[in-house]
Structure formats: C-alpha cells, structure tokens
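Chapter review. Work through the record for Membrane protein/MT1774 before attempting the end-of-chapter questions.
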Amino acid sequence: MAFRGPQVWLWRWRRNPLRRRADAVEAWVLLAAWVVTVLAGVLAGLATARTVEQGMARERVEWRPAVALLTEQAPGPADSRPATSSSEQVWAKVRWSARDGSAHTGQARVQPGSGVGTPVTVWTDPQGRLVTRPATPSEARTRATLVGGIAGVCAACVPFVAGRALRSRLESRRIDQWGYEWARFGPLWGGRTRG
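Structure tokens for Membrane protein/MT1774:
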C-alpha cells in the first residue's frame, strides 16, 4: 500500500516547483467540467420541469369532460356496486358529440355488464378526440419534478463523461511523458545497484 501524505486542497493551483503544466491544465479541465455539469443539469432540469408543468396546465384548460353513451353491452357480469378502480373496469365502445356537434366513437373504461345507452363521462381534447383525465395541479407538479430531475441528470451526464474522458486522456499523456523522461534521464544517473 502506498503512503499518502495529508491531502492539500487546491494543490494544482498553488505555486510549486514540482507542479507541471499538465497538472494546471487538468485542474482547469476538472473545474470547467464540474461547472458545466452542474449548470447543464440544473438548467435542463428546470426548463424541462417548467415545460411539462405548462403543458399539463394547458391540458387542464383545454380538455373537457363529455357524456358518452355505450353503443354495445359491456363485457362481464353486471355489478350493482360502483367500480373503485380502473382495474375493475372493462373497455367498451362509446359514442359522444364534440363541441362542434360532430359525432365520434371510441373505446372507454366502463363498469362490467353496463347496458347499451348507459352514460359514461369521458374527457376530450378541442378536436373531440378521447384523452385521459388531465392531471391535477399537485399531480402535474410531481410529474414535472420527476421528469425534470431525470432530464437534469441525463443532461449533466454529457459534460461529466466528457470531462472524465478528457482527464483520462490527460493522465495517459502525462504517464507517457513521465516514461519518456525516465527513459531519457535514468541512464545518466549511473551507479545502478546489482542484486
């Protein structure tokens, strides 16, 4: 195990006769990589979260509930109690009218065994197409935070990986240079010991 002395912070920026130019370059590369990593992650995360939340707010404004009627018997036995979750519902064909009065048909989740003509509430976009129920403001905040966090981490990975690759390249070059200098000056020392 190699002995390491106490760690000296910011040693690459201090004046030192043993500090090489490569050490200073590596220090600036690391600093720049960390700054760009943090900035890219934060800015991408915030921008993505804001975009997602604005999109969901627009959906809450534009999407409207509409009453649709079943056009066929829903599969499954008729159940007198209301469905408590979407997993207890089945898909059935429904018909509804858009805001402009045009008739549309599609598939919606309904209670099993519902008869033809049973009213069902569906959500539609401005063109009258079926959509899911829009997210509540708290759901939108949660989704925006999650999506923004993922986007921020992904965006931060790019400069982080690039900085690590550049640092690895600088270190490899420094080791090669050290080997070249050792091969050049090692024989000049003379007086090698024999075992």
